[in-house]
Design the sequence.
């Protein structure tokens, strides 16, 4: 797979972590064979879920469907990068200027 999609949520407590790992599990089921949930990291007030994909915009639409179905309340950010690059292409929110992983 050529791209890494990063889904980022603000998270600071273990209950946030529990809810977001349940979201990660639901996402794994949703995206099926088109992409691969490649784990997460948690710290510095955020949780990042990493998805490997050849179709980052399509995978992000699948993420949005799971967010709506699970009625996620946390603020979400999303961006992707070519695995050979360091810079991210921002997908969400549309007015976000910089995307970084803490």
Sequence:
């Amino acid at each position: 797979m050529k791209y890494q999609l990063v889904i980022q949520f603000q998270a600071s407590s273990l209950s946030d972590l529990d809810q977001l790992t349940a979201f990660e599990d639901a996402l794994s089921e949703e995206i099926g064979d088109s992409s691969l949930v490649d784990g997460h990291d948690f710290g510095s007030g955020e949780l990042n879920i990493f998805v490997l994909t050849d179709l980052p915009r399509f995978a992000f639409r699948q993420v949005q469907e799971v967010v709506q179905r699970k009625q996620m309340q946390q603020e979400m950010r999303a961006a992707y990068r070519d695995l050979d690059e360091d810079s991210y292409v921002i997908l969400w929110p549309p007015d976000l200027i910089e995307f970084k992983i803490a």
